[in-house]
Amino acid sequence: xxxxxxxxxxxxxxxxxxxxxxxxxxxxxxxxxxxxxxxxxxxxxxxxxxxxxxxxxxxxxxxxxxxxxxxxxxxxxxxxxx
Length: 82
Description:
Oligomer: single chain
Number of strands: 4
Distance between the termini: 34 Å
C-alpha cells in the first residue's frame, strides 16, 4: 500500500510518498541520492539523483525518512507559485 499526499504550507508545496515496505538501513540512506547507487538488482541508480537535481534547480529539496522493517517516506518540497 502506498500513500501519496500533496500539501501547501508556508509558500511551499510538499509531495510525500509513503510505503510500508522493507525500509532502508543507515548505509543505504547515506548513499541513496548518489548517482549509480541502487538497491535494485537491475536498477541504474539514476532516478533519485535526477529527482534531487530537479528539486534543487526549482529551489526545493528532497529527502527520505526510513527504518528497516517500517517502510519509507520520501518527500519533495518546492516553492509554491507566486
